[in-house]
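question for whoever is on the cluster today: can someone run the full assembly for these? four chains, 1176 residues total. i dont have access anymore since they changed the login thing
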Amino acid sequence: MPEKKPHSNWRAKVHEIIYEADTPAGKLFDIILLVAILASILLVMLESIESLDEKYHMFFNVSEWVITILFSIEYILRIISVKQPIKYVTSFYGIIDLLSTIPKYLSLIFVGTHALVAFRAIRLLRIFRILKLVRFLSASNHLATALKASRAKISVFMLAVLIITIILGTVMYLVEGKDHGFDNIPKSVYWCIVTLTTVGFGDITPQTPLGQIIASLIMIMGYGIIAVPTGIVSAEYTKHTKDDGAHDKHTTSALPPHPSTVNTNSQSCANCLASNHKDGAEFCYKCGYQLHHD
Amino acid sequence: MPEKKPHSNWRAKVHEIIYEADTPAGKLFDIILLVAILASILLVMLESIESLDEKYHMFFNVSEWVITILFSIEYILRIISVKQPIKYVTSFYGIIDLLSTIPKYLSLIFVGTHALVAFRAIRLLRIFRILKLVRFLSASNHLATALKASRAKISVFMLAVLIITIILGTVMYLVEGKDHGFDNIPKSVYWCIVTLTTVGFGDITPQTPLGQIIASLIMIMGYGIIAVPTGIVSAEYTKHTKDDGAHDKHTTSALPPHPSTVNTNSQSCANCLASNHKDGAEFCYKCGYQLHHD
Amino acid sequence: MPEKKPHSNWRAKVHEIIYEADTPAGKLFDIILLVAILASILLVMLESIESLDEKYHMFFNVSEWVITILFSIEYILRIISVKQPIKYVTSFYGIIDLLSTIPKYLSLIFVGTHALVAFRAIRLLRIFRILKLVRFLSASNHLATALKASRAKISVFMLAVLIITIILGTVMYLVEGKDHGFDNIPKSVYWCIVTLTTVGFGDITPQTPLGQIIASLIMIMGYGIIAVPTGIVSAEYTKHTKDDGAHDKHTTSALPPHPSTVNTNSQSCANCLASNHKDGAEFCYKCGYQLHHD
Amino acid sequence: MPEKKPHSNWRAKVHEIIYEADTPAGKLFDIILLVAILASILLVMLESIESLDEKYHMFFNVSEWVITILFSIEYILRIISVKQPIKYVTSFYGIIDLLSTIPKYLSLIFVGTHALVAFRAIRLLRIFRILKLVRFLSASNHLATALKASRAKISVFMLAVLIITIILGTVMYLVEGKDHGFDNIPKSVYWCIVTLTTVGFGDITPQTPLGQIIASLIMIMGYGIIAVPTGIVSAEYTKHTKDDGAHDKHTTSALPPHPSTVNTNSQSCANCLASNHKDGAEFCYKCGYQLHHD
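^ ran it for u. tokens below:
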């Protein structure tokens, strides 16, 4: 139910800054947002290093509050400037944006408690701010399409891998047993996954000749069947790049378009949040709401 | 020799439930079967964890009996409802279905013995129940075709890998010797497979400069020739997806069809077990036996 | 200079048995040869296991002599039955066939000496007998073509990998130093190859934060650039399979043709050793020498 | 501003020797340069092995001086013979050529100091001489094009990998904690990269069941998504080899053309350093300067 009445001017302005990357103010906003996200992630990571936290605890705390307040303002502005706030709040980005602000406020409540693990977990929720970066990945539509197209086959492949590892894990548990680190079937299956995926930590290794022969088979199998997902994505990808020949030739040989320099795709409707509008489009292709307000 | 006489009504009904996934009863049966298989596998895995087994031994035992009896009933019903029981019993699924029930009954016989290893091995045979899941993988025909088509080349590749690892394993045995963990040629070959497949456990590592140089060569070789199986499957796969263009475009962009929602392929003949019947087929394409009994 | 005079009947017969796989005698010869090679390789491997060698030394020694004499006879027969023995002796197979017999005879000469390393090295030369298996790999012409076609690009890629590992190895030597196992540049480069190829033994690992950051870069790089050889071989392979469409569709979906059942390719000229003759060819396409002698 | 006045004869001669690989003198120069680079790299690597350095310190020092003086002469000649020395000096090759000579001279200045780390770092700068080899890699234009074309997508992929590892690294830090080696988030992220890229050092491994389950997911994910860069490069590469069919068929089946035998590409303009001139070109395609001076 798109309401067509022109909303107040400053809300339109805010929408333009936040959602449209092709104006100077929009560009600036994007850059500030990017820097804030990266700084925030760096803060969470450095805070977890004990020696650094002891030294710079005050600095970390203040910076964290600055970033939290910044993100809070962004969250409120996004809600205000969008026509259908509920839709935004319940969207993927809406949840991520909320998660970016809440943990620090919650830390005020839990300040006196000694429930360290829960507290730490909540504080670390801030790391999910990195998902705000996904907004800047919109250039990778092509890649996502190929991945989505091969999702079914990759699922089947993954299930096949799981079946193989469970059977071979059980066999290895029987052959090697508790004495050589294969304590129980789940652990054996874990080892089997470590080996089949060619990771090979080496914390558990087969010691008996028979165990080593089976391990060799698992390794060669893992080395061989890695070809399967690769072949699938490769074929899927080749097909997709072929479908839109001319267009593709243009995009692939260019640098990843900087979010703020792309004229298409870069703005989303203030009413229904739909993006990927045509170049120079005046109205949203989905709900007919007017796009540009100059 | 297909006998065409109409068999008793309840046997037809049972066949419909078990073998045809497109009726409500058939769907329910598939879902119960799926849950039973997964529960059964989980049970076998959890039982192997000693601390859990001590605590919940009674619960594990009862659950196992419930599942075993369930699978036994399924096995008997499958035999009864199929026209040619021998064919089913000796088929891949027939053997898997038998293996799913027998171990628990055998445990009654071996209950007093102390032959722990044999007993454990028999109990663990239950893990092969996971192969019952293969029935649900019928959607992956495309993948299997590509794999089967490149089987010959992958075999040649595997043989080449084996020849390389045996020769280089022997060389490493000579260079590093017993003092650095390369005790004998089979162990050296095992190490060579671990290295070439880029698993790299690290339980045995070359210590001499010459050994490390040879190891580097093996690793770079392994890193390079992984391209070969990938290239093969990739090319094979591209060819197959190209052969049936229109049809493929439809299937690849869809979710993996849930076993109980696919209308084709989902039922098999009560007489000869042939599946992959055409949509709406009335008679088996192989033996002419009537398919639907409504 | 092919001499056209008909050679003695038994030499023609021997040639037929050894070089032509499409007669019953030829098939039998191929099977015996295959078994002898595999038994011989197994012997060399088992002999290297000390505990087994102590127990079954006598048995190993006798078996080895039987196989050696068998290979010697084969070698002599091959020389006799071929028109241009020099050509055969200096060919790849000729050298491998010689290497298959000589080590055991040399062990008679060195029997009294204590030069263990040299002696062991000579004995282990027998492992190269496995290369006699290459004769049975003739079905993989297609694969070899794709590999040969991408040889140039893979060489360039390997050189690039080497340059990267030498530079990054030096940097890691500087960053981590002797205290963390990066004793000298060659060892650092070795570690770098272990890491870039995603083998990851774990015998040497970076301990400093900076070292771990650089290691992360190396790993991600290694994970990414593995795509390069794969892409090359894949593209090369796709091209080759496309060139001979109809023919390929036939071969790829079949099992690897057993050496003794293929009618083409399976015989080589008694005069110039050329193989890959056309089906039903009467004369060698290279030197005009008559092929069949029935 | 290309000056067209004919420069002195000996400078033209020097230019021909250094920049043109298709004259006997040019070929000889290339070979000497190649040997000098390889010898120099070998020297740096061997010097870092303490036991060797103690024994052959004198020899290493003298050899290093010989090579340094040789490279210095080369550098000066390159500057003299080129029309626009500034352009050369500030180019990639110009900087590498300078870096190849300077470290040894700097060692004279720091000879008395005890600033070992700085001194060692400067001496090790010589390893960058290996980049002089890049000049010989000009045959790999095709490969570089495919890589450059997929650069955008690979960047997006790398960013996605980074986002995944940071989130999962934080989760693992929470699950496993300090007691099992996951001291802080950066270290957890490092472990996550080690695991996702299937390197798997094994210096840090998950110990709790939950940690091992998450680790299994990371490994299977890493095993699966390696298909993505491979698919991209593969598709990109296939497209590029298809674009120039006839030409490609010729180059791919040939050996990598030796730098000194290629008639095209092998000479660069004395005025503007542009290379890749057409076969038999008389004037530079970029600045019109005369190419051959015979």
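summary bc i know u wont read the tokens: Chain C has a mean pLDDT of 76. Chain C has two domains: 10-136, 142-246.
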